[in-house]
Amino acid sequence: MAMFEADTFNFQRALIKGRLQARYKRFFADIELDTGETITAHCPNPGKMLGLLAPGTEALVTPLNDPSKKLQYRLEALKERDCWVGVNTQWPNRLIAQAIAADLIPEISGYTSIIPEVKYGRNSRIDLLVTGHPDRPDAYVEIKNVHLSRRDGHAEFPDCVTERGAKHLLELIDMVHQGYRAAVVFCVQRNDVTTFDIARDCDPGFARAYDQARAAGVEFISISWEMSAEGLRFHRALTVL
C-alpha cells in the first residue's frame, strides 16, 4: 500500500535492497537481498523490461507480510545508470490521477472529476475519464508505463510489440472525432531523462498508430517521477519529440 502527500507517492514501509538474480515466466524474479537471503518476488510488469534485467542489477522490493499471498515480496525498481527505475505497472494510473487532481499537469488542469476505468470504444476501458472543466470538453486519458532509456537523457515507449496499445490509439482518434479531448500520458518512472519519443524499431505498428493519432489531434504528454526506497516523487514534464 501507499499514500499521497502533495506531489509524492509514499510507500507505507521502506523498500528492501537486493540484487536481481533472474526474472522468469514474466512474473517471477529471484532477488538476493543485502542480508544474503535469496527470495522470489512477484514481478508486476508483463513487458520485456528491456535493458533492466542483467544479473546483479540492484533491486528494490516491497515486503508484503501478507499470509494470503503466495509470494511475500514484490519487485518495485531496478537500477540502471545510477538511477532507480520503477517497474511496477500498478502505480502509473494512481500517479497520473493524483497529478491531475493536484494540477501538476497543465494540459489536463481545471477539471473537477476523475473517473477511472470507463467503458468506451470497441470493448475497451479508458484509464481515466476527466470531466467538469468549465470551458473544455471531457478528456479521455490513456496512461502508459515507461522505463526504457537506450541513450542518456531520453525515454522511449514501447519496449516490445503492443497491439493493444495501438488499438487504444485508434480508439482515441474516434473520441476526438466525436468532439472529446483524448490524451496519452506516458508515465516515466525514472528521473534521468528530459525527452521522450516512440521506440519505432520496437513496434512499427504502434509507431504508425501514434503518427495517425497525433495528426488527428490526440494529445501526447510525458511525465517523469523520481523513484526511491521511500516512494515516487513528481519530477518534471518531458519534451515529447
From TrEMBL:
Domain Sugar fermentation stimulation protein C-terminal, first and last residues per copy: 91-230
GO molecular function terms listed in the Swiss-Prot or TrEMBL record: DNA binding
Gene3D superfamilies registered for this protein in UniProt: 2.40.50.580, 3.40.1350.60
Organism the protein comes from: Asticcacaulis biprosthecium C19
SfsA N-terminal OB domain residues: 23-87
Superkingdom: Bacteria
CDD domains with a match to the protein in the record: SfsA-like_bacterial
InterPro entries: SfsA, SfsA_C, SfsA_N
Name by which UniProt lists this protein: Sugar fermentation stimulation protein homolog
A Pfam family assignment: SfsA
Family statement: Belongs to the SfsA family.
